[in-house]
């Protein structure tokens, strides 16, 4: 029996990358995992299949985030499969790499809608489903606290907002024994960072140089930290910002 046996988890943006790594790890630990996806249904099915092949249980739910009514639609889909939740991982997010001189309002609004507004209202409309003693884990970014990178300004601002959300929400839900934390990855090897890491011959080496450990992270590095916070071992950690950058902020 896994340490999360009998618990139900929802991971947004779980069809690939960090989200998939988290979903697969929680599944291996015994949780029944709701694998959320926005548009890539096939990738979500592959994540579900991987969890089931490892002996776990999972189901996919497809809802686009960042649009009006997204949180309500997400929970309506979730309710078709489960009647309560123990672990919520707000992982879904989109990037923005335009400096302030170039970014348009539409892109700015979109990145905030997906990265900040969606998690806020997912929690608002899902709090009654979250069982006492549960977990909320928000996937932030080291960019919220690292040296200034103006080309990532809008994206970093969303993650800073998410960190404040985690801190304040921990006070709101603490009376129910629910912990709330932010987990902040650094550069992780996913398809979202493929251009950065492999777009030029020295890309991966340059990225590794940011880390005190001299490497580039894998989704499993983030998933392991999320799994700890989701477990009984993480019961006394709340309102925290957990650095999973490999020492990129040192």
Radius of gyration: 17 Å
One letter per element, helices H and strands E, the order comes to EHEHEHEHEHEHHHE
Q: SS-based structural class?
A: alpha/beta
Beta-strand proportion: 15-25%
Number of domains: 1
CATH level-3 fold name: Rossmann fold
Number of helices: 8
Helix content: 40-55%
Total strands: 7
Shape: globular
Contiguous runs where pLDDT drops below 50 for at least 5 residues: none
Describe this structure in words.
It is built from 8 helices and 7 strands. The protein has one domain (8-243): NAD(P)-binding Rossmann-like Domain (Rossmann fold). The chain has a 7-stranded parallel beta sheet with strand order 3-2-1-4-5-6-7, with helices on both faces. The chain starts with 7 loop residues before the first strand and ends in a 6-residue tail after the last strand. Helix 3 (70-79) packs across helix 4. It has helices spanning 17-28, 41-53, 70-79, 105-126, 153-173, 194-198, 203-208, 219-230; strands spanning 8-11, 32-37, 57-62, 85-90, 130-139, 179-185, 241-244. By secondary structure, it is of the alpha/beta class. The mean pLDDT is 94. Strand 2 (32-37), helix 2 and strand 3 form a beta-alpha-beta unit.
Describe the secondary structure blueprint for this structure.
Elements: E1 8-11, H1 17-28, E2 32-37, H2 41-53, E3 57-62, H3 70-79, E4 85-90, H4 105-126, E5 130-139, H5 153-173, E6 179-185, H6 194-198, H7 203-208, H8 219-230, E7 241-244
Parallel strand pairs: 1-2, 1-4, 2-3, 4-5, 5-6, 6-7
Helix pairs in contact: 1-2, 1-8, 3-4, 4-5
């Amino acid at each position: 029996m896994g340490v999360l046996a009998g618990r139900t988890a929802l991971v947004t943006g779980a069809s690939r990358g960090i989200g998939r790594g988290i979903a697969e790890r929680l599944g291996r630990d015994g949780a029944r995992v709701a694998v959320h996806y926005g548009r890539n249904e096939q990738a979500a099915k592959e994540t579900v299949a991987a969890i089931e092949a490892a002996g776990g249980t999972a189901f996919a739910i497809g809802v686009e985030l960042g649009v009006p009514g997204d949180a309500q639609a997400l929970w309506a889909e979730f309710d078709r499969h489960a009647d309560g939740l123990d672990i919520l991982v707000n992982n879904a997010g989109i990037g923005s790499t335009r400096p302030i001189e170039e970014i348009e309002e539409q892109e700015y609004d979109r990145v905030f809608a997906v990265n900040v507004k969606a998690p806020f209202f997912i929690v608002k409309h899902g709090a009654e489903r979250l069982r006492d003693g549960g977990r909320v884990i928000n996937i932030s970014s080291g960019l919220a606290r690292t040296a200034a990178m103006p080309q990532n300004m809008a994206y970093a601002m969303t993650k800073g907002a998410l960190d404040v959300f985690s801190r304040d929400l921990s006070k709101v839900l603490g009376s129910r024994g629910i912990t709330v934390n932010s987990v902040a990855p650094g550069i992780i090897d996913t398809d979202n960072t493929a251009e950065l890491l492999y777009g030029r011959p020295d890309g991966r080496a340059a990225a590794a140089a940011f880390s005190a450990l001299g490497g580039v992270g894998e989704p499993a590095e983030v998933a392991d930290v999320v799994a700890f916070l989701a477990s009984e071992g993480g019961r006394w950690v709340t309102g925290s910002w957990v650095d999973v950058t490999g020492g990129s902020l040192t």
